Amino acid sequence: xxxxxxxxxxxxxxxxxxxxxxxxxxxxxxxxxxxxxxxxxxxxxxxxxxxxxxxxxxxxxxxxxxxxxxxxxxxxxxxxxxxxxxxxxxxxx
Length: 93
Known about the structure:
The chain has 93 residues and is of the alpha+beta class. The protein has helices at 35-38, 43-46, 89-92; strands at 4-6, 13-15, 19-22, 31-34, 55-59, 64-68, 82-84. The protein is 13% helix and 29% strand.
């Protein structure tokens, strides 16, 4: 006797041996995908956000220039005195 489960993507009833378990948002619920559907690219991976870009920052507290994805100074770990953009000596005078 074989156990059949419905595929979460295509809706076909497939054998449990021919399906893989997919994490579910609801606790206690089991979701399954047949192997043919699990090889297809998912739509959620195509809509993933683009990688964030490193920006130029300047920390006024420790006078440190750096490039980072977030405005946290790696030298003093400060957030208060961090300015985004290309700060030159002429700007400081």
